[in-house]
Design goal:
Layout lengths: L1 E2 L2 E6 L5 H10 L3 E4 L1 H9 L5 E2 H5 L14 H8 L5 H9 L7 E5 L3 H4 L6 H6 L4 H11 L5 E3 L5 H10 L3 E2 L1 H26 L9 E6 L11 E5 L13 E5 L5 H17 L5 E6 L2 E7 L3 H11 L1 H4 L2 E5 L5 H8 L3 E6 L4 H7 L6 E5 L7 E6 L2 E6 L9 E4 L5 H14 L7 E4 L4 E5 L5 H15 L8 E4 L7 H8 L4 E4 L6 H11 L2 E4 L8
Parallel strand pairs: 2-3, 2-5, 3-4, 5-6, 13-14, 14-15, 21-22, 22-23
Antiparallel strand pairs: 1-7, 8-9, 10-15, 11-12, 11-13, 16-17, 18-23, 19-20, 19-21
C-alpha cells in the first residue's frame, strides 16, 4: 500500500478539483501547487504551499519553467525502498511526494491551422508531461492522476484504505498517464507535420471467439480517450440475452445502426441485414407494420439475420421472431412479455441499444498500409428531373428513403422501393444490369402488385440504356441515379421513350 503524506497538484482543468482537495486536506495531506492551481485551492478555503516557496526558485521565462527542479523530481523519483536514495534526498532536504495530480495544457482543443506559431509553441506542455512521466516511472511509491475522471476512483480507493492506495490501482493510473502523454505528443506531431499523421490509440474492450471464420483471431477495439473510465459499450448496446457476440454480428449490427441513424425516429422502422447487406427495410405508421414489410422483402435471406428496430419490440413481433431463426435482435427496448418470449431461445442474441456513437471514418487495411476515408454521410446533392414528371413531396421522401438504404448495399447496388418499403435489392454484382435483374425479379416475385409504379435507385450512373430497358419491363415509374456518364444522353433518351421519370442526384454511393 502507498501512504499519501505529500501531494503535488498542477492542473489546467480545475474540474472536480474541490472534492479531491477536500479529501486530502481532511486527511492532513500536505499540498503543494503551482501558481494558478495554488490560487484556486486557497480560494476554496484550503491550505496549500506554492511550489516556488518550497523550491526557493521562482517561475522563470514567462512561466515556462515552474516545476523543473531537483527538489520536485527528486521527491517524485526518490525510492524509499533504496536506503541510499532516502539518504540522498534527506541530505538535500527533498520531500517525498506520494501523489502527483497533473493535467496538461489542452493543446489539441486550442490549436487550429490559423493559430499563430508562437501561440502553438506556448501551448506545448513541458513540465506537466515530465511530472507525469516521473511519477508514472515510480508508480510503486507515487500515485499519478492525469485526468479529472480519475478523481472519483481515487477518492473511493483512498477512503477504503484510510489514506492509502493500492499498488494495483497506482499501476492502472500509471498506464493511463503514459497513454495520456503519448496521445498528447501524437497530437503535437500531427499539428506540426508537413506529411499528415493520423494517430490512433485503440484498446481491446471485447474478446471475440474468432473473426469472420473460426481460424481467424479477432477482438473489438475502441478508440482510447484520456478519461480514466470504463469503455463505452460496444456499438452502444447492452446484451440482455444469448450467446456472446461474434465478429460477424458486430459488423452487421454496426451497419444496421448506422443506417437506422439515417432514418431517425420520426417513423417506426425495421431493418434486416445479412452479411452487412440490408435484405429488408421499411418505415411505417407502427413498428409491427414496418417489421412485417421488412421481413416480407426477403424471408429467405432473413434466415439467421440481424433484426434492427428503432422502437420497442412488442409481443406480436416477438412471437413471429420466435417462430423463425434469428441471430441478433437489436432495439431500444423490449416489452416485458416480448422479452419473456424471446428469451426462450437460448442462442438468440438480444441487444438493447442505449446510445448512438459511431466513428466518423472508415479504416481498411490495404497491403502494407491502411486506407482511411470519411464515412459516406451525404445522401443526394440534388433531385434533378432530367426527363418525365415533376416529383411530388411524397416521391422525394421515398427517394431519400431508398437512397439512404442503398448506401449500405454492396456495389453495384440497385434497390426497388415504394412508400418507404424496400421491395427488392440487387448488389455485389460485377455489372449493374445483373444487379437490376436481381432486384427487379425479387421485387416482382414477392410484391407483384407493388413493383409496377415503384422507384428504382442506383448507387452509380448507368453506363448504357440496358438497365432502363430492364426497369421498363417491370413497370418502374421513377429511376434515380447520380448521372455523369458519357452516355447520359442515351440513357435519358431511353427513359423518355419508355415514359420513365429519370432523376439525377449528383451523388455516387459506391460501397466495396
Amino acid at each position: 500500500m502507498i501512504t499519501i503524506k505529500n501531494a503535488l497538484i498542477s492542473v489546467s482543468d480545475k474540474k472536480d478539483l474541490k472534492a479531491l482537495v477536500e479529501l486530502l486536506s481532511h486527511a492532513e495531506v500536505h499540498l503543494y501547487a503551482t501558481e494558478s492551481t495554488h490560487a484556486a485551492i486557497t480560494k476554496m478555503g484550503f491550505l496549500c504551499e506554492k511550489v516556488e516557496n518550497y523550491t526557493a526558485f521562482p517561475p522563470i521565462l514567462h512561466g515556462r519553467v515552474k516545476t523543473l527542479h531537483p527538489k520536485i523530481f527528486g521527491g517524485i523519483l526518490g525510492r524509499t525502498r533504496i536506503p541510499s536514495e532516502v539518504e540522498e534526498n534527506k541530505q538535500h532536504q527533498i520531500l517525498k511526494f506520494d501523489l502527483v495530480c497533473v493535467n496538461l495544457y489542452p493543446f489539441s482543443d486550442n490549436v487550429s491551422p490559423e493559430t499563430p506559431l508562437e501561440e502553438k509553441l506556448d501551448l506545448i506542455d513541458i513540465g506537466g508531461v515530465s511530472l507525469l512521466r516521473a511519477s508514472g516511472k515510480n508508480y510503486i511509491e507515487c500515485i499519478t492522476l492525469s485526468d479529472p475522471s480519475q478523481y472519483p476512483l481515487f477518492i473511493a480507493e483512498f477512503t477504503q484504505y484510510e489514506g492509502c492506495v493500492s499498488e494495483e490501482f497506482s499501476q492502472k493510473c500509471m498506464v493511463q498517464s503514459f497513454l495520456h502523454t503519448s496521445m498528447y505528443d501524437a497530437h503535437i506531431a500531427q499539428t506540426f507535420s508537413e506529411n499528415p499523421i493520423q494517430p490512433y490509440f485503440l484498446q481491446k474492450s471485447l474478446a471475440l471467439r474468432y473473426g469472420e471464420n473460426p481460424h481467424q483471431k479477432a477482438g473489438f477495439f475502441h478508440p482510447l480517450s484520456n478519461a480514466f473510465t470504463a469503455p463505452s459499450l460496444p456499438l452502444g448496446c447492452h446484451k440482455l440475452h444469448g450467446k456472446d457476440l461474434s465478429y460477424n454480428n458486430l459488423l452487421d449490427v454496426s451497419q444496421g445502426l448506422d443506417l437506422m441513424n439515417e432514418y431517425g425516429t420520426e417513423l417506426p422502422a425495421c431493418i434486416i441485414l445479412k452479411h452487412t447487406n440490408p435484405c429488408g427495410a421499411a418505415a411505417s405508421k407502427d413498428i409491427l407494420d414496418a417489421y412485417k414489410k421488412a421481413y416480407q422483402c426477403d424471408p429467405v435471406s432473413a434466415f439467421g439475420g440481424v433484426f434492427i428496430f428503432n422502437q420497442e419490440v412488442n409481443l406480436a413481433i416477438a412471437e413471429h421472431i420466435h417462430s423463425v431463426f434469428v441471430d441478433v435482435v437489436c432495439a431500444p427496448s423490449y416489452a416485458t412479455d416480448a422479452l419473456q418470449i424471446l428469451t426462450k431461445k437460448k442462442n438468440i442474441r438480444l441487444l438493447e441499444h442505449t446510445a448512438y456513437d459511431s466513428l466518423p471514418m472508415h479504416l481498411k487495411d490495404a497491403g502494407n498500409g491502411f486506407l482511411v476515408q470519411d464515412k459516406d454521410q451525404e445522401v443526394v446533392k440534388d433531385m434533378e428531373v432530367v426527363c418525365g414528371n415533376p416529383l411530388s413531396a411524397e416521391e422525394k421522401e421515398d427517394i431519400l428513403f431508398g437512397m439512404k438504404t442503398l448506401k449500405y448495399v454492396k456495389s453495384n447496388a440497385i434497390l426497388i422501393c415504394d412508400h418507404r418499403h424496400v421491395l427488392g435489392i440487387g448488389g455485389g454484382q460485377p455489372n449493374r444490369v445483373d444487379s437490376c435483374r436481381i432486384a427487379l425479379s425479387h421485387a416482382k416475385e414477392r410484391f407483384p402488385q407493388e413493383v409496377s409504379g415503384s422507384i428504382l435507385c442506383s448507387d452509380a450512373y448507368f453506363p448504357f440504356p440496358d438497365s432502363i430497358q430492364e426497369a421498363s419491363e417491370y413497370g418502374i415509374r421513377i429511376v434515380v441515379e447520380p448521372g455523369g456518364s458519357i452516355n447520359d444522353s442515351k440513357v435519358i433518351e431511353e427513359a423518355n421513350r419508355k415514359g420513365i421519370t429519370l432523376v439525377f442526384t449528383g451523388q455516387r454511393h459506391f460501397l466495396h
